[in-house]
Design brief:
By secondary structure, the protein is of the alpha/beta class. It has helices at about 15-30, 50-55, 65-70, 125, 140-150, 160-175, 195-205, 250-255, 300-315, 360-380, 395-405; strands spanning about 5-10, 35-40, 45, 65, 75-80, 80-85, 90-95, 100-105, 105-110, 115, 155-160, 180-185, 210, 215-220, 225, 230-235, 235-240, 245, 265, 275-280, 285, 330-335, 340-345, 350-355. The structure holds flavin-adenine dinucleotide.
Length: about 425
């Protein structure tokens, strides 16, 4: 077996999707002639689900990617991917002062998403966002919060989605002198069933969070946010949680993407324009619904990452992969350090049945968070450990569509706006 004859698989991005794909693929192709390289900006596994907790408590430990990859045979490169050269099957990586070029036979694109800092004026300069490091990041916010809390200052959180709600509860509980205000464009919790929304409202009110509804922020300036009707909301700190966007890299490279910049993929996770490129997690969007509507979320990231590993492992053995299909289980929204609301969204992401609240909801959320955190290590020890239901849903929808051509399998060229 020569090194030259190996299939070179390069994975970019080591979030939930990329890291799970890497370790599962390495485990499943141990006897195959493949080489696997993982490229990621940071040398630690950033659990984005925990970023708001990390802002309140920076001592939460992070796992080193090198430790997770121990014994897998995967080569890890710490660096920023700066370009994808599709015609020549290569990526460009900046590692400190050095520029690298890595060639691939198959590329797994798992660069995820980031908080959109550019749609509203002044956000980039004047608001913090829940990204791990750099200017106005979690790292910077965690240094400021204790000081602003000590003098009873105001934290303005812009964005009433799940991330904004979780952050408001977390910071209000962790910093009792802080005056937390949550601004939301719609009514609080309009994106979810009424009882869940009511429970979230009660929890936030108990922590003293001021909820400002039906208010759109049109600009963030130093120390104040300006609303669409020109009202000024002053703040000491502003946290922007107003929506996710993707990197321009995929579009710039020439991959076919949707209007959010997500790579459009077929049921085998391949780019519809460049089949040697696979995409997973927040950076991807299937053109045919894989059994459930796709939403940027840790669950979709994990199962799509696991599924791409299965597809490539089967291809390496000369077998044909099955189309990607899944169903959701549940969702949980944290409401402080000991409280959460959890509910079933099985199978199609619609909230159903009773909700679990308080400590019970919290414990369920903690279990899933813990599970996602240990999943890469679990996959290293037991490749294929992550299993999911709904594997027949795509095929069933296809069969229904064939019986009734007027009801085709749903095509999702345009994404739904909500995330998480
Ligand atoms: C505060 C917060 C709370 C959330 N809570 C929930 C929740 O409760 N439930 C839920 O389902 N979802 C939640 N989400 C969303 C969830 O975290 C994402 O959907 C998920 O992380 C997507 O996983 P991913 O692997 O696709 O991308 P990511 O987790 O974004 O990982 C992408 C990786 O690529 C790396 N990368 C990016 N650009 C480059 C580059 N140029 N070069 C090299 N490496 C690069 C990043 O450093 C990162 O390691 C939350 C998000 C946030 C921010």
């Amino acid at each position: 077996m020569t090194a030259e004859s190996k299939t070179r698989i390069v994975i970019i991005g080591a979030g939930y999707a990329g890291l799970i794909a890497t370790v599962r693929l390495a485990g499943k192709t141990r006897k195959q002639n493949v080489s696997i390289t993982l490229v990621n900006m940071a040398d630690v596994f950033v659990e984005r689900l925990r970023l708001h907790e990390m802002a309140a408590n920076p001592t939460i430990p992070q796992k080193r990617i090198a430790d997770i990859l121990k014994g897998t045979g995967v080569t890890f490169v710490q660096g920023a991917v700066t370009g994808v050269d599709l015609p020549n099957h290569a990526i460009c990586v900046q590692t400190g002062s050095e520029s690298l070029r890595l060639e691939y036979d198959k590329l797994i694109y798992a660069l995820g998403s980031t908080i959109d800092r550019d749609s509203v004026a002044g956000v980039r300069e004047n608001a913090y966002v829940l990204t791990p490091s750099g200017t106005n990041s979690v790292e910077a916010l965690s240094k400021k919060l204790p000081e602003v809390n000590a003098r009873g200052g105001t934290l303005l959180i812009c964005g009433g989605g799940a991330t904004g709600i979780e952050s408001a509860a977390e910071f209000a509980e962790a910093f009792p002198k802080l005056h937390v205000q949550l601004v939301t464009q719609n009514g609080l919790g309009d994106f979810i069933k009424k009882p869940i929304a009511n429970y979230m409202r009660e929890s936030l009110t108990r922590f003293g969070v001021t909820i400002i509804e039906h208010t759109q922020i049109k600009e963030v300036q130093a120390g104040k946010a300006i609303t669409a009707d020109s009202t000024t909301i002053p703040f000491d700190l502003c946290l922007w949680t107003g929506g996710f966007s993707t990197l321009p890299l995929a579009r710039e490279a020439g991959l076919t993407v949707n209007e959010r910049g997500q790579i459009l993929i077929d049921p085998f996770m391949r780019s519809i324009s460049h089949p040697e490129v696979y995409a997973v997690g927040d950076a991807s969007h299937p053109v045919e619904e894989p059994g459930a509507p796709v939403r940027m979320s840790a669950f979709y990231a994990a199962v799509s990452g696991a599924n791409v590993a299965d597809c490539l492992a089967l291809e390496a053995r000369g077998q044909t992969p099955k189309p990607f299909s899944f169903a959701y289980y549940g969702q949980a929204i944290a409401l402080g350090e000991h409280n959460a609301v959890a509910f079933s969204i099985y199978p199609d992401d619609k909230p159903r049945g009773p909700m679990l609240t308080g400590k019970a909801g919290y414990n369920l959320r903690a279990f899933f968070l813990g599970f996602f955190g240990i999943l890469p290590n679990l996959e290293r020890r037991m490749p294929g450990a992550l299993f999911w239901t709904g594997k027949g849903r795509y095929a069933a929808a296809k069969r229904r569509a064939e019986r009734d051509p007027l009801k085709p399998v749903q095509i999702h060229m345009i994404d739904t706006p909500e995330t998480h």
